[in-house]
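Researcher: Go.
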Amino acid sequence: MARVTVTVNRLELGRVLRGSATREVERVTRETWNGARQRAPVDEGTLRASLLYRVETGRTRVTGTVWSPLQYALYVHEGTGIYGPRRRVITPRRHRFLRFEVKPGGPLRAGQRVPARGNRRVVYARFVRGTPPNRFLTDALEEVSPYPVVRRDR
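Model: Structure:
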């Protein structure tokens, strides 16, 4: 009986596999970051400009992360009020009315600019419905990932 023995250099195999996995994760992470920047809502551009990404390589895994350090990024992504996780209208806590500034609606005339914050029209309300989610991060990941993306929001 003929016999063949195969010896696997586990360290070298791990290095090769980690290298190709790292390149793939870097590609998907970078493309997700680019897609998220294109999909992020723009008022003044702060959220779009705040998006960051990082790829970390450990002994047994390679992880790519795309995020924003801004506190309101989660509210934009997941929605607020009746569209958010609590599914109820937003009401004032300390006063009788909510107060916020709104941009003018409709098209701007030639030479007209959107007023800066502090110079916009003030609106008062007893409650607001909130804003629908804009899942710019997970949508970007779904578009570029060659692997299935499991979403918990649907």
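Model: The radius of gyration is 24 Å.
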